[in-house]
Amino acid sequence: MRYIPLYAAASFLPNLSFLTPLISISAVLALVTTMIVNIALAAHTLLSCAENGVLPQFLAKTGKRSGAPLTATLVVVLVTGLFAAFPQLTNILINLGALCNVIVVAIVCVTVLALRKKYPKLEAGHFRAPGGRVLPVLTLVILVASYIPSIVQGGWQLWAATAAYYLLGMVLYRGRRQSV
Question: Hey, is 69 helix, strand or coil?
């Protein structure tokens, strides 16, 4: 807990010794809340994908009384538990998630540039972004510059895992979309 600035500051206040355990409890409750919300969001994402035919239909099963995605929640909890059983994977998972988010942002930037080129005279209010063409290009430059050190330092495994993740997603999407 010494790495939490508020906890460290409170530990130096002898008159307010009750604050340090209170901060610890608050931190644990905040983490638990965040985990529960993320599990619920992931389950609803699986539910939506199953309803749209991208994932198997058994993930679209909901509870009769609550309407909650039962099977999807169970799958998310099992996968989360599996990852929690191997804490050495935490750093890899964090980096994989960050890189996947970087790729999504890069795709959005390229899409903005392509749409501005393809449809330069859209009506006002339909396609507006601050910075015009400069912001997406600047964002792409910053993203590439941020990830060059990880490539140079031998982070190819992360890139390979990310590529495999995206390929699996494309195969699942194409396969399910064509069968629907």
Answer: strand
Domain range spanning residue 178?
87-180
Q: Which residues have C-beta within 8 Å of that of residue 144, sequence separation ≥ 6?
A: none
Are 23 and 43 in contact by the 8 Å Cβ rule? The answer is no
End of a domain among 57, 85, 113? Answer: 85
Directed axis angle between helix 90-118 and helix 156-179, to 10°?
Answer: 60
Give the DSSP H/E element, type plus range, for residue 136: helix 134-152
Helix (H) or strand (E) holding 129: none
Longest distance between any two alpha carbons in the chain, whole Å: 67
pTM of the full structure = 0.63
Are residues 125 and 173 part of one domain? yes
Burial of 165 (0-12, 13-18, 19+ CB in 10 A): middle
Q: CA 109, CA 120: separation in Å to the nearest integer?
A: 16
pLDDT in tens, 86-96: 888 877 777 77
User: Can you tell me whether residue 62 is helix, strand or coil?
Assistant: strand
